[in-house]
Protein backbone atom coordinates (compact mmCIF):
# COMPACT_ATOMS: atom_id res chain seq x y z
CA UNK A 1 0.00 0.00 0.00
CA UNK A 2 1.31 3.44 -0.94
CA UNK A 3 0.32 6.80 0.57
CA UNK A 4 -1.46 7.65 -2.69
CA UNK A 5 -3.63 4.54 -2.53
CA UNK A 6 -4.46 5.30 1.09
CA UNK A 7 -5.22 8.90 0.18
CA UNK A 8 -7.79 7.73 -2.38
CA UNK A 9 -9.22 5.25 0.13
CA UNK A 10 -9.89 8.20 2.43
CA UNK A 11 -11.50 10.18 -0.38
CA UNK A 12 -13.54 7.13 -1.37
CA UNK A 13 -14.79 6.61 2.18
CA UNK A 14 -15.78 10.27 2.54
CA UNK A 15 -17.63 10.29 -0.77
CA UNK A 16 -19.32 6.96 0.00
CA UNK A 17 -20.54 8.25 3.37
CA UNK A 18 -21.87 11.37 1.75
CA UNK A 19 -23.67 9.50 -1.02
CA UNK A 20 -25.17 6.93 1.35
CA UNK A 21 -26.60 9.68 3.54
CA UNK A 22 -27.95 11.52 0.54
CA UNK A 23 -29.60 8.38 -0.85
CA UNK A 24 -31.18 7.67 2.54
CA UNK A 25 -32.55 11.16 3.00
CA UNK A 26 -33.82 11.16 -0.59
CA UNK A 27 -35.60 7.83 0.02
CA UNK A 28 -37.15 9.39 3.09
CA UNK A 29 -38.19 12.39 1.01
CA UNK A 30 -40.04 10.15 -1.46
CA UNK A 31 -42.06 8.74 1.46
CA UNK A 32 -43.18 12.12 2.87
CA UNK A 33 -46.44 12.05 0.97
CA UNK A 34 -47.31 8.39 1.67
CA UNK A 35 -50.83 7.97 3.07
CA UNK A 36 -50.95 8.20 6.87
CA UNK A 37 -51.50 4.81 8.56
CA UNK A 38 -54.95 4.55 10.18
CA UNK A 39 -53.60 4.30 13.77
CA UNK A 40 -51.88 7.64 13.28
CA UNK A 41 -54.72 9.46 11.57
CA UNK A 42 -55.52 11.48 14.70
CA UNK A 43 -51.98 12.80 15.26
CA UNK A 44 -52.34 15.84 13.02
CA UNK A 45 -55.26 17.88 11.74
CA UNK A 46 -55.10 18.35 7.97
CA UNK A 47 -53.67 21.84 8.23
CA UNK A 48 -51.04 20.80 10.78
CA UNK A 49 -50.09 17.85 8.61
CA UNK A 50 -49.48 20.16 5.69
CA UNK A 51 -47.31 22.28 7.95
CA UNK A 52 -45.35 19.21 9.02
CA UNK A 53 -44.86 18.21 5.37
CA UNK A 54 -43.55 21.67 4.55
CA UNK A 55 -41.25 21.54 7.59
CA UNK A 56 -39.83 18.16 6.59
CA UNK A 57 -39.22 19.30 3.02
CA UNK A 58 -37.45 22.40 4.21
CA UNK A 59 -35.34 20.33 6.63
CA UNK A 60 -34.52 17.92 3.80
CA UNK A 61 -33.29 20.72 1.56
CA UNK A 62 -31.32 22.30 4.35
CA UNK A 63 -29.81 18.92 5.34
CA UNK A 64 -28.70 18.34 1.76
CA UNK A 65 -27.13 21.78 1.58
CA UNK A 66 -25.40 21.14 4.90
CA UNK A 67 -23.90 17.80 3.81
CA UNK A 68 -22.89 19.29 0.50
CA UNK A 69 -21.03 22.17 2.14
CA UNK A 70 -19.31 19.77 4.56
CA UNK A 71 -18.19 17.31 1.91
CA UNK A 72 -16.93 20.06 -0.40
CA UNK A 73 -15.18 21.76 2.54
CA UNK A 74 -13.41 18.63 3.68
CA UNK A 75 -12.46 17.49 0.15
CA UNK A 76 -10.99 20.88 -0.74
CA UNK A 77 -9.14 20.88 2.58
CA UNK A 78 -7.69 17.41 1.99
CA UNK A 79 -6.76 18.03 -1.67
CA UNK A 80 -4.95 21.22 -0.65
CA UNK A 81 -3.01 19.26 2.02
CA UNK A 82 -4.80 21.26 4.70
CA UNK A 83 -3.82 18.91 7.53
CA UNK A 84 -0.13 19.24 6.57
CA UNK A 85 -0.43 23.04 6.43
CA UNK A 86 -2.07 23.27 9.85
CA UNK A 87 0.56 20.86 11.21
CA UNK A 88 3.39 23.02 9.84
CA UNK A 89 1.81 26.18 11.19
CA UNK A 90 1.49 24.68 14.70
CA UNK A 91 5.12 23.53 14.54
CA UNK A 92 6.22 27.03 13.64
CA UNK A 93 4.75 28.23 16.93
CA UNK A 94 6.15 25.66 19.34
CA UNK A 95 8.44 22.63 19.50
CA UNK A 96 6.50 20.98 22.26
CA UNK A 97 4.80 17.96 20.66
CA UNK A 98 1.88 17.99 23.13
CA UNK A 99 1.18 21.67 22.51
CA UNK A 100 1.44 21.10 18.74
CA UNK A 101 -1.26 18.42 18.95
CA UNK A 102 -3.53 20.60 21.09
CA UNK A 103 -3.09 23.61 18.81
CA UNK A 104 -3.75 21.42 15.79
CA UNK A 105 -7.12 20.27 17.12
CA UNK A 106 -7.90 23.78 18.29
CA UNK A 107 -7.42 25.12 14.75
CA UNK A 108 -9.52 22.34 13.22
CA UNK A 109 -12.26 22.94 15.78
CA UNK A 110 -12.36 26.67 15.12
CA UNK A 111 -12.36 26.11 11.35
CA UNK A 112 -15.26 23.69 11.47
CA UNK A 113 -17.11 25.90 13.94
CA UNK A 114 -16.73 28.89 11.62
CA UNK A 115 -18.20 26.83 8.81
CA UNK A 116 -21.11 25.42 10.82
CA UNK A 117 -22.13 28.48 12.88
CA UNK A 118 -23.86 30.32 9.99
CA UNK A 119 -25.69 27.08 9.15
CA UNK A 120 -26.87 26.57 12.70
CA UNK A 121 -27.86 30.24 12.87
CA UNK A 122 -29.96 29.81 9.73
CA UNK A 123 -31.47 26.61 11.08
CA UNK A 124 -32.51 28.27 14.36
CA UNK A 125 -33.55 31.75 13.26
CA UNK A 126 -34.95 31.00 9.83
CA UNK A 127 -36.30 27.44 9.70
CA UNK A 128 -37.20 26.75 13.34
CA UNK A 129 -38.45 30.33 13.65
CA UNK A 130 -40.72 29.99 10.63
CA UNK A 131 -42.44 26.92 12.11
CA UNK A 132 -42.79 28.49 15.54
CA UNK A 133 -40.27 26.27 17.38
CA UNK A 134 -37.62 28.82 18.08
CA UNK A 135 -37.63 30.69 21.38
CA UNK A 136 -33.89 31.45 21.41
CA UNK A 137 -32.85 35.08 21.23
CA UNK A 138 -29.78 36.07 19.26
CA UNK A 139 -28.06 37.01 22.48
CA UNK A 140 -28.76 33.57 23.96
CA UNK A 141 -27.58 31.88 20.76
CA UNK A 142 -24.16 33.54 20.91
CA UNK A 143 -23.92 33.16 24.67
CA UNK A 144 -24.52 29.41 24.22
CA UNK A 145 -21.85 29.39 21.55
CA UNK A 146 -19.28 31.00 23.84
CA UNK A 147 -20.16 28.71 26.74
CA UNK A 148 -19.87 25.77 24.34
CA UNK A 149 -16.36 26.87 23.37
CA UNK A 150 -15.29 27.06 26.99
CA UNK A 151 -16.72 23.62 27.66
CA UNK A 152 -14.89 22.20 24.65
CA UNK A 153 -11.72 23.93 25.75
CA UNK A 154 -11.89 22.65 29.32
CA UNK A 155 -13.42 19.19 28.88
CA UNK A 156 -12.20 18.35 25.36
CA UNK A 157 -8.84 20.06 25.77
CA UNK A 158 -8.36 18.53 29.22
CA UNK A 159 -9.17 15.00 28.12
CA UNK A 160 -7.05 15.36 25.00
CA UNK A 161 -4.08 16.60 27.02
CA UNK A 162 -4.34 13.59 29.32
CA UNK A 163 -4.57 11.21 26.35
CA UNK A 164 -1.55 12.78 24.61
CA UNK A 165 0.48 12.62 27.81
CA UNK A 166 -0.45 8.96 28.23
CA UNK A 167 0.47 8.30 24.60
CA UNK A 168 3.89 9.89 25.03
CA UNK A 169 4.51 8.02 28.22
CA UNK A 170 3.05 4.52 27.69
CA UNK A 171 3.81 3.81 24.00
CA UNK A 172 1.98 0.80 22.60
CA UNK A 173 0.18 0.10 25.87
CA UNK A 174 -1.42 3.49 25.79
CA UNK A 175 -4.80 2.33 24.42
CA UNK A 176 -5.59 0.49 27.59
CA UNK A 177 -4.72 3.36 29.93
CA UNK A 178 -6.61 5.70 27.65
CA UNK A 179 -9.56 3.31 27.80
CA UNK A 180 -9.62 3.43 31.60
CA UNK A 181 -9.36 7.24 31.61
CA UNK A 182 -12.19 7.63 29.09
CA UNK A 183 -14.33 5.18 31.04
CA UNK A 184 -13.86 7.06 34.30
CA UNK A 185 -14.48 10.44 32.68
CA UNK A 186 -17.70 9.24 31.04
CA UNK A 187 -18.99 7.78 34.31
CA UNK A 188 -18.19 11.03 36.14
CA UNK A 189 -19.80 13.11 33.39
CA UNK A 190 -22.99 11.07 33.50
CA UNK A 191 -22.97 11.16 37.28
CA UNK A 192 -22.53 14.91 37.65
CA UNK A 193 -24.01 16.08 34.35
CA UNK A 194 -27.06 17.54 36.10
CA UNK A 195 -25.01 19.32 38.76
CA UNK A 196 -22.12 20.63 36.67
CA UNK A 197 -23.10 20.94 33.02
CA UNK A 198 -26.83 21.68 33.01
CA UNK A 199 -26.58 24.82 35.23
CA UNK A 200 -24.23 26.40 32.67
CA UNK A 201 -27.04 26.42 30.10
CA UNK A 202 -30.32 26.17 31.99
CA UNK A 203 -32.15 26.87 35.19
CA UNK A 204 -33.54 23.86 37.00
CA UNK A 205 -35.70 23.54 40.07
CA UNK A 206 -37.27 20.62 41.91
CA UNK A 207 -40.77 19.80 40.69
CA UNK A 208 -43.26 21.54 42.99
CA UNK A 209 -45.49 19.61 45.33
CA UNK A 210 -48.82 18.88 43.71
CA UNK A 211 -50.80 16.33 41.78
CA UNK A 212 -48.11 15.66 39.15
CA UNK A 213 -45.47 15.01 41.77
CA UNK A 214 -47.89 12.79 43.69
CA UNK A 215 -48.73 10.77 40.60
CA UNK A 216 -45.06 10.28 39.76
CA UNK A 217 -44.21 9.26 43.34
CA UNK A 218 -47.14 6.91 43.50
CA UNK A 219 -46.04 5.16 40.32
CA UNK A 220 -42.39 5.01 41.45
CA UNK A 221 -43.40 3.45 44.79
CA UNK A 222 -45.65 0.95 43.08
CA UNK A 223 -42.80 -0.41 40.92
CA UNK A 224 -40.22 -0.07 43.69
CA UNK A 225 -38.13 2.57 41.95
CA UNK A 226 -36.38 5.15 44.06
CA UNK A 227 -37.22 8.50 42.54
CA UNK A 228 -37.08 11.51 44.80
CA UNK A 229 -35.06 13.84 42.61
CA UNK A 230 -37.48 15.22 40.05
CA UNK A 231 -36.39 18.44 38.37
CA UNK A 232 -37.93 20.85 35.90
CA UNK A 233 -35.69 22.60 33.41
CA UNK A 234 -36.47 25.77 31.44
CA UNK A 235 -36.23 24.20 27.98
CA UNK A 236 -38.79 26.75 26.79
CA UNK A 237 -36.17 29.47 26.69
CA UNK A 238 -34.70 27.86 23.56
CA UNK A 239 -37.38 25.81 21.86
CA UNK A 240 -40.97 24.67 22.14
CA UNK A 241 -39.86 21.06 21.60
CA UNK A 242 -40.34 18.88 24.68
CA UNK A 243 -38.21 16.24 26.35
CA UNK A 244 -37.52 14.30 29.55
CA UNK A 245 -34.45 12.33 30.58
CA UNK A 246 -32.85 10.42 33.42
CA UNK A 247 -29.25 10.95 34.44
CA UNK A 248 -26.80 9.80 37.08
CA UNK A 249 -26.55 6.60 39.07
CA UNK A 250 -27.19 5.68 42.69
CA UNK A 251 -27.74 8.68 44.90
CA UNK A 252 -27.21 11.06 41.96
CA UNK A 253 -30.02 9.48 39.96
CA UNK A 254 -32.59 12.05 38.89
CA UNK A 255 -35.22 12.71 36.29
CA UNK A 256 -35.38 16.01 34.45
CA UNK A 257 -38.58 17.21 32.80
CA UNK A 258 -38.65 20.05 30.31
CA UNK A 259 -41.17 22.73 31.25
CA UNK A 260 -42.47 22.34 27.69
CA UNK A 261 -43.28 18.69 28.42
CA UNK A 262 -45.37 19.72 31.43
CA UNK A 263 -47.23 22.24 29.26
CA UNK A 264 -47.94 19.90 26.40
CA UNK A 265 -48.73 16.57 28.09
CA UNK A 266 -51.36 15.59 30.64
CA UNK A 267 -50.16 14.34 34.02
CA UNK A 268 -51.02 10.74 33.11
CA UNK A 269 -49.09 11.07 29.87
CA UNK A 270 -46.05 12.38 31.73
CA UNK A 271 -46.18 9.48 34.18
CA UNK A 272 -46.43 7.09 31.21
CA UNK A 273 -43.37 8.67 29.58
CA UNK A 274 -41.48 8.31 32.87
CA UNK A 275 -42.68 4.72 33.21
CA UNK A 276 -40.99 4.09 29.87
CA UNK A 277 -37.76 5.60 31.24
CA UNK A 278 -38.05 3.54 34.43
CA UNK A 279 -38.37 0.53 32.12
CA UNK A 280 -34.91 1.32 30.73
CA UNK A 281 -33.51 1.15 34.26
CA UNK A 282 -35.43 -1.93 35.32
CA UNK A 283 -34.47 -3.83 32.18
CA UNK A 284 -30.82 -2.85 32.81
CA UNK A 285 -30.58 -1.03 29.47
CA UNK A 286 -28.47 1.71 31.04
CA UNK A 287 -25.95 -0.92 32.08
CA UNK A 288 -25.95 -2.72 28.72
CA UNK A 289 -25.53 0.56 26.87
CA UNK A 290 -22.64 1.49 29.11
CA UNK A 291 -21.08 -1.92 28.49
CA UNK A 292 -21.59 -1.75 24.72
CA UNK A 293 -20.23 1.80 24.62
CA UNK A 294 -17.22 0.84 26.72
CA UNK A 295 -16.41 -2.19 24.55
CA UNK A 296 -16.70 -0.09 21.39
CA UNK A 297 -14.36 2.53 22.84
CA UNK A 298 -11.83 -0.14 23.82
CA UNK A 299 -11.99 -1.73 20.38
CA UNK A 300 -11.57 1.67 18.68
CA UNK A 301 -8.62 2.64 20.88
CA UNK A 302 -6.97 -0.73 20.25
CA UNK A 303 -7.25 -0.32 16.47
CA UNK A 304 -6.00 3.23 16.80
CA UNK A 305 -2.95 2.08 18.77
CA UNK A 306 -2.05 -0.28 15.90
CA UNK A 307 -1.85 2.49 13.32
CA UNK A 308 -1.15 5.77 15.14
CA UNK A 309 2.60 5.52 14.57
CA UNK A 310 2.33 4.61 10.91
CA UNK A 311 4.19 7.02 8.65
CA UNK A 312 2.12 5.67 5.77
CA UNK A 313 -1.07 7.15 7.29
CA UNK A 314 0.65 10.47 7.88
CA UNK A 315 1.98 10.51 4.32
CA UNK A 316 -1.50 9.86 2.95
CA UNK A 317 -2.42 13.25 4.45
CA UNK A 318 0.72 14.89 3.04
CA UNK A 319 2.72 14.88 6.31
CA UNK A 320 6.09 13.11 6.22
CA UNK A 321 6.28 11.77 9.79
CA UNK A 322 3.66 10.30 12.08
CA UNK A 323 2.41 12.14 15.15
CA UNK A 324 -0.46 11.69 17.57
CA UNK A 325 -2.76 14.27 16.00
CA UNK A 326 -2.14 13.31 12.37
CA UNK A 327 -2.54 9.64 13.29
CA UNK A 328 -5.84 10.41 15.03
CA UNK A 329 -7.24 12.35 12.08
CA UNK A 330 -6.20 9.73 9.51
CA UNK A 331 -7.56 7.01 11.74
CA UNK A 332 -10.97 8.64 12.10
CA UNK A 333 -11.25 9.24 8.38
CA UNK A 334 -10.49 5.57 7.69
CA UNK A 335 -12.48 4.26 10.64
CA UNK A 336 -15.82 5.56 9.43
CA UNK A 337 -16.95 2.31 7.69
CA UNK A 338 -16.34 0.44 10.94
CA UNK A 339 -18.07 3.09 13.00
CA UNK A 340 -21.00 2.89 10.59
CA UNK A 341 -21.30 -0.83 11.34
CA UNK A 342 -21.06 -0.30 15.11
CA UNK A 343 -23.61 2.50 14.96
CA UNK A 344 -26.04 0.30 13.00
CA UNK A 345 -25.61 -2.45 15.59
CA UNK A 346 -26.11 0.03 18.44
CA UNK A 347 -29.27 1.35 16.75
CA UNK A 348 -30.66 -2.18 16.37
CA UNK A 349 -30.02 -2.81 20.06
CA UNK A 350 -31.45 0.58 21.03
CA UNK A 351 -34.69 -0.03 19.10
CA UNK A 352 -35.05 -3.40 20.81
CA UNK A 353 -34.64 -1.64 24.17
CA UNK A 354 -37.26 0.96 23.22
CA UNK A 355 -39.83 -1.79 22.58
CA UNK A 356 -38.95 -3.36 25.93
CA UNK A 357 -39.26 -0.05 27.78
CA UNK A 358 -42.64 0.60 26.09
CA UNK A 359 -43.82 -2.87 27.09
CA UNK A 360 -42.68 -2.24 30.65
CA UNK A 361 -44.64 1.02 30.78
CA UNK A 362 -47.74 -0.68 29.38
CA UNK A 363 -47.55 -3.56 31.88
CA UNK A 364 -46.79 -1.47 34.96
CA UNK A 365 -48.85 1.58 34.01
CA UNK A 366 -51.10 2.03 30.99
CA UNK A 367 -50.85 1.93 27.22
CA UNK A 368 -53.35 4.67 26.39
CA UNK A 369 -51.54 7.67 27.94
CA UNK A 370 -48.19 6.54 26.56
CA UNK A 371 -49.69 6.33 23.09
CA UNK A 372 -51.41 9.71 23.26
CA UNK A 373 -48.35 11.23 24.92
CA UNK A 374 -46.08 10.01 22.13
CA UNK A 375 -48.56 11.27 19.55
CA UNK A 376 -48.56 14.72 21.11
CA UNK A 377 -44.77 14.80 21.22
CA UNK A 378 -44.69 13.77 17.57
CA UNK A 379 -47.18 16.46 16.66
CA UNK A 380 -45.54 19.27 18.56
CA UNK A 381 -42.17 18.52 16.97
CA UNK A 382 -43.77 18.03 13.51
CA UNK A 383 -42.08 14.64 13.31
CA UNK A 384 -42.26 12.28 10.39
CA UNK A 385 -45.13 9.75 10.47
CA UNK A 386 -43.94 7.84 7.43
CA UNK A 387 -40.16 7.37 7.58
CA UNK A 388 -38.65 5.11 4.93
CA UNK A 389 -37.86 1.66 6.44
CA UNK A 390 -34.24 1.85 5.23
CA UNK A 391 -33.78 5.13 7.10
CA UNK A 392 -35.28 3.63 10.25
CA UNK A 393 -32.94 0.67 9.95
CA UNK A 394 -29.80 2.71 9.37
CA UNK A 395 -30.35 5.79 11.47
CA UNK A 396 -33.21 5.52 13.96
CA UNK A 397 -32.34 4.87 17.59
CA UNK A 398 -36.09 4.55 18.24
CA UNK A 399 -38.64 2.55 16.23
CA UNK A 400 -41.08 4.69 14.25
CA UNK A 401 -44.20 5.88 16.05
CA UNK A 402 -46.31 3.44 14.03
CA UNK A 403 -44.07 0.51 14.99
CA UNK A 404 -44.18 1.47 18.66
CA UNK A 405 -47.95 1.87 18.81
CA UNK A 406 -48.54 -1.35 16.86
CA UNK A 407 -46.26 -3.21 19.29
CA UNK A 408 -48.00 -1.72 22.34
CA UNK A 409 -51.43 -2.61 21.04
CA UNK A 410 -50.36 -6.22 20.70
CA UNK A 411 -49.52 -6.40 24.40
CA UNK A 412 -53.11 -5.99 25.59
ZN1 LIG B 1 -36.59 5.09 25.54
From TrEMBL:
Keyword annotations for this protein, in alphabetical order, are: Endoplasmic reticulum, Hydrolase, Membrane, Metal-binding, Metalloprotease, Protease, Transmembrane, Transmembrane helix, Zinc
Which source organism?
Nonlabens tegetincola
Record has Nucleotidyltransferase as a keyword: no
- Domain Peptidase M48, residue spans: 206-410
The domain of life is Bacteria
**MF annotations from Gene Ontology:** metal ion binding; metalloendopeptidase activity
Name all CAAX prenyl protease 1 N-terminal domain ranges: 31-203
What name does this protein carry? Answer: CAAX prenyl protease 1
Residues bound to Zn(2+) are: 276, 280, 354
Amino acid sequence: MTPTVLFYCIIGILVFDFLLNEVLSFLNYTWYSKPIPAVLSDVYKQEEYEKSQAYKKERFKFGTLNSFISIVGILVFIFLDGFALVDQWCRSITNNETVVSLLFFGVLFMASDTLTTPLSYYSTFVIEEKYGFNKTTKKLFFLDKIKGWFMTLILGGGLLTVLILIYNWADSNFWWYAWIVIFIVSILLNMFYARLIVPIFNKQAPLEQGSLRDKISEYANQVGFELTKIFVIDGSKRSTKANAYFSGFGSEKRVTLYDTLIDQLTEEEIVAVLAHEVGHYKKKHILYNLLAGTLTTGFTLYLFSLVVDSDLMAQALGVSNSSFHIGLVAFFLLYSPISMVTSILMNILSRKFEYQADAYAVRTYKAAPLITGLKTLTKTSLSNLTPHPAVVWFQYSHPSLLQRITAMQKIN
